[in-house]
Amino acid sequence: MDKVPILRRLPRRMVVCLHFTCAILGAGALFTLYLESETTITSTVPNVLTTEKVASESSRNPRFSSSKQDAKIVPPGWSWTSSYIIPSTNGTKNSDSLTSKNSSVPLASRHYTAFHDKTKYIYVNSASTTSTYRPARLTYGVVKKRPTPTPIPDTCQSSSMTDVKLILLWTPFFGFWGYFPQEGFQQCSRCRNCQVTTDRSKLEESDAVIFHARDMSLSDLPPVRYPHQRWIYYCLESPPYSDFPGLLHMRNMFNWTMTYRSDSDIVVQYGMVVKTHPRKIDMQTLLWSFRNKSKSVVWMSSHCPTDGGRDSYVKELRKYIDVDVYGTCGTLICPPESTGKCLQEFSDKYKFFLAFENTICKDYITEKFFRTLKYNIIPVLFGGAKYDKFAPPASYIDALSFKSPKHLAFFLSGVGKDFKLYSSYFRWKKNYSVVLSSQKECDLCALLHRTDLKPSSYYDIRKWWVGESNCRTWKPKR
Predict the structure, then answer these.
(1) Is 423 buried (19+), middle (13-18) or exposed (0-12) by CB count in 10 A?
(2) What is the pTM (predicted TM-score) of this model?
(3) Which of 57, 203, 232, 383 is the most exposed place for a label (fewest CB within 10 A)?
(4) Burial classification of residue 62, based on how many CB atoms lie within 10 Å of its CB (0-12 exposed, 13-18 middle, 19 or more buried)
C-alpha cells in the first residue's frame, strides 16, 4: 500500500463522489417541484363558500329604481356591502383573482351568501359574461394556459349532447308536469341539446329553474340558489288572474321571464302567423259560404264576469245585433272536447266570431284569435294588444277601435251584407298561414347556450308584471 499511495486514497474519493451525486439529484428534484408549484397551486377553498352574516331588512339599498338590476344584487329585498366579503384562510380578504381551471373566463373576486325565508343565495360580486356559466374548481396563482373555447353558434348545430343544458321544473302547470315535453326539443331547428327534469335533487346541476306563477308558493322555494342558474318566471295568464301577494317578496329572484308579453326574455305565444308562398284563394267557395251563412255573430265563453268587462260589452252589443252565446255565459252548448267541431259549425253558419279576451292587458292574446283565423269566419277582437304586431293585415275587426258597441254593431251589419267587403278580410290567406304552436322549448334552449349575455335579474317582478301591463276594464259610457 505504501508503494501505491493512490489505492490508499481511493475509498475517501468514492465517498466524496457519492455525496456529490446525491446533492445533484436532490437539487434536480427540488427544482422540478418548484416548476410544478409555479405552474398551478390548487386551492383548498371549497366550491361553495359561505358566511354566517345575514343581511337585514333595514339594509335595503334605495338606489335601485329600474326593473332589471345586475345579478350581484340577488336576494329579494337585500343589498350587499363589503362586510359580506368572505375572509380567506390566511386572514386577509379574498381579493385575489379567482380563475376557472377549465375556462379562460375569470371568476369573481368575492363570494357572498344571504338568506331569505328558507332559501340560501350563493352569489359573487362580479360574474362571468357567459350566461349559463357553472363554476369549476377554484385555483389561485398562475393557471395552466388552455385554448379559449369556441363560442356556441346561434344555430347550435355543432353542439353535442355533452354540452347539454338541464332545465328543472320546480312547479307544475296547473298541476300538470308535462308542460315542457322533452320531445319538444326535437322539433327545434336551432338548439336541441337540452334536457328537462322534475327531480328536485338535481337542483345544483340545473342550468335553469322554472316557476309557474299560478303554482308558486313562498313556502316552497329551492333551499339553495347557485350562481350559474337562471331562475325563470313562467306565466301565460294575465296579471288580474296571476298576481298574488308573494310577488312583493320576490325581488331579484328571477333572472328571466317567459310569458306572452313581447318584452319578456322568452316570448310564448299561443300561435303565430307566418308568411308563405303565394296561394290562390277559392273565391267561388267563399262566395257560396257567404250566401249560406244564416246568422250574424256568435260568442263562446264559459268565464263570466271577467276583469276586462267583455260580458258587459256583449250585453250592450246584443241590443243592436243578434249574438248567439255558447257556454256557461249563455244558453247554447258546445262540449269542451268538441271545440274544433263547434268552430267548424260556426264558420258554416255565422259571419263573425267574438274572440274576446277576459282581460284588456298589454300583448295579451290567447288561442281564441289564432284558431279562429283557420276558419272562414271573421274574428272580432277585444283586448289590449296591438294586433297589427301579431296578425296579418286586414284579417280581423278590433271592437275597441269603435266608439261604442252600437257603432260596432252597425259596422258588422254593413260588412255582413257586402260580399266584396266581407271577402277582403280573407285575402291575407294568399300570403300567410297560421301555426298553432309555441317555440318556448327552442327559444329557452337557444338562450341557455348564448355566451354573450350578461347576468341580470328583475329587481321588482311585480312592478314589471302587474304595474307595466296596462290592464284596464271596459265600462259602458253613461
Answers:
(1) middle
(2) 0.69
(3) 57
(4) exposed
Q: Does residue 475 sit in helix, strand or coil?
A: coil
- CA quadruple 196, 201, 206, 208: dihedral positive or negative? positive
| Residue 393 predicted with pLDDT over 90 | no
Q: Give the DSSP letter of residue 371.
A: H
The per-residue pLDDT for range 261-306, each reduced to its tens digit, is 999 999 999 888 888 888 888 899 999 999 999 999 999 998 899 9
Buried b (16+ CB within 10 A) or exposed e, 400-420: eeeeebeebbebbeebbeeee
Gyration radius from the chain CA atoms = 33
Which segments of 238-307 are extended strands (E)? 256-259, 266-267, 272-275, 295-300
Cross-strand pairs, 352: 297, 378
d(CA 275, CA 298): 29
In the prediction, which pLDDT does 337 show? Answer: 84
Closest CA to 370 of 346, 348, 387, 351: 387
**CA dihedral in degrees (394, 395, 400, 402; nearest 10)?**
50
224: amino acid identity, one letter: V
The Cα-based distances of 78 to 81, 248, 250, 403 in angstroms read 10, 13, 11, 48
**Which three-class secondary structure string do you get for 178-238?**
CCCCHHHHHHCCCCCCEEEECCHHHCCCCCEEEEEHHHCCCCCCCCEECCCCEEEEEECCC
Beta-carbon count within 10 A of 470 CB: 12
Give the pLDDT score at 124: 41
Quickly count: other Cβ atoms within 10 Å of residue 360's Cβ: 25
> What gap in Å lies between CA 79 and CA 64, rounded to an integer?
10
Positions marked catalytic: 237
The answer to whether 106 and 135 have CB atoms below 8 angstroms apart is no
Residue bearing the bigger pLDDT, 155 or 410: 410
pLDDT higher than 60, residue 2: no
What is the side-by-side strand order in the sheet with 119-124? Answer: 111-116, 119-124, 224-225
- All three cell numbers of 414, joined, read 254593413
